[in-house]
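look at this:
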Amino acid sequence: MPSFTQIFMAIGAAGSVLAAPVTNSTIPSRSQTFTGDITYYQPGLGACGETNSDSENVVAMSPTEYQGNCGKTITITKDGKTATAKVVDKCPSCASGAIDVSSVVFQSLADMSVGRTTVSWSFN
């Protein structure tokens, strides 16, 4: 049978484990710069619960980057051009780093006829 001291030490050790800071490696860092494909889509009712139109600067993200970022904004860069877009939707088929934007955002960065290109972006 364990002694009172052994039980007390075990409880203390368990408490220090429970008090350790919790980190979630699936939520991307705000200072991180991502690189990936950009495509455009027709916004509507998004995964964040808002209805948006194609004339708004909005973005859908891969499930990895989408998590916990509804309403946040990102800055997208392509060949010296920049655009800002609000996270409103999830893009289940997008690879990590890839984004799907409204056509107004895409047009500000590249010609629509390109359809898909590579950009870098980061959270604001």
